[in-house]
Amino acid sequence: AHHCCRVAEMYAIYRELHPPTGVEHCIECHFFDLRRKSLVVAATSVLRVYDLHTTPVKAEGSHAHRGGVRLVQVAEFQLYGRVQSLEAVCLAQSKREALLLSFSDAKLSVVEYNPETNDLKTVSLHYFEDDELRGGLLYNRHRPVVRVDPEGRCAAMLVYGMHLAVVPFHHDTLLEEHEPTTPQPLQSAGDILPSYTIDLRTLSEKVYAVKDFRFLHGYNNPTVFLLNEPTPTWAGRITLRKDTSCILAISLNMTEQVNPIIWHIHTLPFDLCYALPVPTPIGGVLVVGANSLLYMNQSSPSVGVALNSITDCSTNFPLKKQGDLAITMDCSRAVFVSSEQVVASLKGGEIYVLTLVTDGMRGVRNILFEKAAAGVLASCVCTVGQEHLFLGSRLGNSFLLKYSTKPLGGGESSEPLAKRRKSEDLLGEDPDELEVYGSDTHSGPMLASYKFEVCDSVLNIAPIANVTMGEPAFLSDEVRVLSTVGEWLL
C-alpha cells in the first residue's frame, strides 16, 4: 500500500501541449517518387513534407494570399527522438530518395517512404555508441552531423567529435571493387553496405576539435573535407596564439578502408565556423568564418576576404578588403543557388548574395557581397526548385522566398565582372596564349541584382527560447516564470 501511495504521487515533468512548429532542418528531395521533388522539414521530433502548388490570383478584397506558389503540407510523421541532422540520398534500384536522420548520441536511421502504408519504413539502423568510440565521455557535446557524398557513393557521420562513421552505398564502381574480395551482401541488407569507423586521431595530421566536415565535388573517390582546430584558442588569447584552424581532405577508399590525406593547409584564422562545397565546374570549398571568408581549392591559390576590421588584429592570413563592408557571419546559414552565387542569411536576419568572381581558368580571384533583403533569423536554408528559397527558423515563422535576378544597367555595364579590354588590345596578344589560357573578357559571372519576394510562410507558434524563475515576494504568491518567445519577451 505504501508503494501504491508513492506511485500515485508521481507526476510528469514533461508534457507536449502542441506539436513542435520550429523548423530546425530542411532539405529538398524526391521523397515520394523520382518524378517530383518535395520539401522535407524537421521540427524537433516531427517530420513534415510540403509540395509547391501554384494558386490562381484571387479577386480583389479577398484576404487570401495573392496568386503564386504556395506550400501545401502533404504528410507528417512523428519520430521517437529529436532530429540532429537531415540528409537525403538516392539508393540503387530505388524509386525514391531515402532520408538519413541522426539522433543523440550517435544513432543513424535510414528511412524511406512506403506508399503501401503511407508511412515511413526503416531501411537501415546504425548505432555508434560503443564504449570504445565514446572514449570515456559521459555527455556528448558534439552533434552527430551527417553528410552525403554528391555522387551518392556513401554517407558519413561525426561520432563524438573524434571518429568518422562511414556508411557505403551500392554503386556501380563500388560493386566492381567489392566483387573479387567480398561476397555480395544479403538481399535483406538492401542497398547499404556494412559501415565502419575512422579514428581521426590516428591520421598522419593531428585532428582535434572538428568544426565541420563536407564531401567535395569533382573527385574520383569520395573526399571528405575537415575543418578543425588542433590547438584551440579564443578571442582573449589571440595576442599569444592566432591562426590555429587547419583544413585537410581525406580520400575514402571504402574497399581497403585506407584513407590517405591528399590536401592540408595550416595557420588559418581561428574563428572559422563551417564550410560549403562549391559545385562543379568551379569546385573547391568556401570556408565561412565570423570575420573572414575563404575560398580554397587544391589546384589554385586561396582567396580570402575580410568581412570587417577585426581581421586586422585577429589573423595574419592575407585578406582582401571589401570597402565599407562590416558584417559577421557566425551563426549564419548559406546555400548555393548556382555554381557562382551563394545566398547567406546572417544571424541578424539580413540576406546577402555572395558572388564568386572567376577567371578564364575557373579560378576564383575575388568574392563580392550584395545586401539583398532582410528576413527571419534562420536556423536552416535550402533551395526549392529553380527559383525558390526556403528559410527555416526555430525562433520565428519560416518563409518561402522567390528570387529573381536583374542585370544592372545596360550596354557595357551588363558585361561580366572581369576587366573589360578593348578589341585592339586582344589583337596584340599571342594567339597561342589565348588558346591555352583563354581571355578574361567573357569570363566571370554577370553583375546582377537579386530580388526576393515572400510567397508563403509556415507558422511557428510561440517558440520558447529561454526561461527563468523568480522568487515570490510573499509565501502565498505563486512562482513567477519569465520566458522569451521567439524575439519577444513575455
Helix coverage percent: under 10%
Average per-residue pLDDT, rounded, comes to 83
Large-scale geometry: globular
Largest sheet: 4 strands, antiparallel
In spatial order, strands of the major sheet run 1-2-3-4
Which regions are unreliable across 5 or more consecutive residues at pLDDT < 50? Answer: 1-7, 174-189, 410-429, 433-443
Task: Work out the number of β strands.
Answer: 31
How would you sum up this structure, described in words?
The protein is mainly beta. It has helices at residues 2-8, 131-134, 172-178, 311-314, 423-427, 431-437; strands spanning 25-33, 36-43, 46-55, 68-78, 85-89, 98-103, 107-114, 119-127, 146-148, 154-159, 163-168, 196-199, 210-215, 223-228, 245-251, 261-268, 272-277, 285-289, 292-297, 300-306, 333-336, 341-345, 350-358, 364-374, 380-384, 388-392, 398-407, 448-458, 464-470, 480-485, 488-489. A four-stranded antiparallel β-sheet has the order 1-2-3-4, with no helix packed on it. Strands 5-6-7-8 form a four-stranded antiparallel β-sheet, with no helix packed on it. A four-stranded antiparallel β-sheet has the order 9-10-11-12, with no helix packed on it. It is globular, with a radius of gyration of 25 Å. 33% of the residues are buried. Mean pLDDT is 83; it is low at 1-7, 174-189, 410-429 and 433-443.
